[in-house]
């Protein structure tokens, strides 16, 4: 007999609190799609990496500004090191995004062969984003530029001054359009987009716009995930008499042939990871 239980780690090991016995059909609801759910978790975690890298990138400029303001710096000793850091943060973001989006497409191709409409929805969504948004087109291809041509951020300038004891600082971080066009074949319409720009491209504004579009892809993916997680969550709510049962610490307990208590918690760990990443 399997039971839904909750465990608490103590100095003496695990303390098990049995919540409710499980019928065979209930056990099947919990574990029928365990392998697929584990793969969905992997993709959700890749998005979390992308989200973390976006946070680091977006905050880097503000943190540098705050540091310069605190010390009232007029001439930075090593501006090139700060430029390298910003490029590093951007590269991390670009490569984590492409890892996320490529792995997501591969998952849809391999695991949803019986539901080809899901892959078609994904391609329509990303295709529309590419067609309708310069920021999406540009940042998507910028990863290829970075991989084959060099560091993407070329313009990094710090302008600071003290006037009547009032300190001010402005940090300019931009993509050099002429350099981008000279070093890489962007293809149309992106090449024409770049050639028609009046000036260079602000890094932070462009990446923020792009990341908002990436979030729309993740929102779509969460709907796919929910199809497999909602039945599990509904069952947990029913068995625990809670509105939105916290999966942390939940497990399945049973006794083996030797009468030893066994604990299985994989599906609940997956559920908790997806909740944290989405």
Beta-strand percent range = 15-25%
The secondary-structure element order is EEHHHHHEEHHEHEEH
Record the strand order, biggest sheet. 2-1-6-7
What is the straight-line distance between the termini? 33 Å
Mean pLDDT: 92
Structural class: alpha+beta
Number of helices: 9
Largest sheet: 4 strands, antiparallel
The gyration radius over C-alpha positions equals 25 Å
Q: What helical percentage do the residues reach?
A: 55-70%
Uncertain residue ranges: none
Q: So what's the overall shape? A: elongated
- Number of structurally distinct domains: 2
Task: Indicate the topology.
Elements: E1 3-10, E2 13-21, H1 24-31, H2 34-71, H3 79-111, H4 116-132, H5 134-148, E3 155-163, E4 166-175, H6 177-183, H7 190-195, E5 201-202, H8 203-240, E6 250-255, E7 261-264, H9 266-277
Antiparallel strand pairs: 1-2, 1-6, 3-4, 4-5, 6-7
Helix pairs in contact: 2-3, 2-8, 2-9, 3-5, 4-5, 4-8
């Amino acid at each position: 007999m399997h039971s839904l239980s909750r465990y608490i780690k103590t100095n003496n090991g695990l303390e098990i609190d049995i919540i409710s016995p499980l019928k065979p059909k209930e056990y099947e609801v919990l574990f029928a799609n365990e392998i697929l759910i584990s793969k969905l978790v992997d993709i959700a975690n890749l998005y979390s990496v992308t989200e973390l890298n976006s946070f680091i990138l977006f905050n880097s400029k503000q943190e540098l500004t705050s540091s310069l303001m605190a010390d009232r710096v007029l001439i930075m000793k090593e501006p090139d090191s700060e430029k390298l850091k910003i490029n590093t943060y951007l590269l991390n973001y670009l490569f984590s995004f492409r890892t996320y989006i490529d792995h997501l497409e591969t998952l849809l191709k391999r695991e949803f062969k019986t539901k080809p409409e899901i892959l078609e929805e994904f391609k329509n969504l990303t295709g529309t984003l590419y067609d309708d948004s310069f920021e999406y087109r540009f940042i998507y291809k910028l990863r290829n530029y970075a991989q084959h041509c060099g560091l993407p951020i070329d313009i990094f300038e710090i302008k600071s001054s003290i006037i009547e004891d009032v300190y001010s600082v402005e940090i300019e971080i931009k993509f050099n359009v002429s350099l981008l066009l000279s070093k890489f074949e962007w293809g149309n319409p992106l090449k024409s987009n770049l050639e028609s720009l009046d000036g260079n491209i602000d890094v932070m504004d462009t990446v923020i716009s792009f990341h908002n579009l990436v979030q729309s892809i993740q929102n779509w993916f969460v709907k796919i995930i929910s199809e497999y997680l909602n039945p599990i969550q509904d069952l947990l709510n029913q068995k625990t008499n809670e509105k939105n049962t916290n999966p942390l610490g939940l497990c399945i307990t049973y006794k083996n042939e030797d009468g030893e208590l066994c604990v299985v918690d994989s599906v609940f760990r997956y559920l908790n990871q997806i909740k944290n990443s989405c």
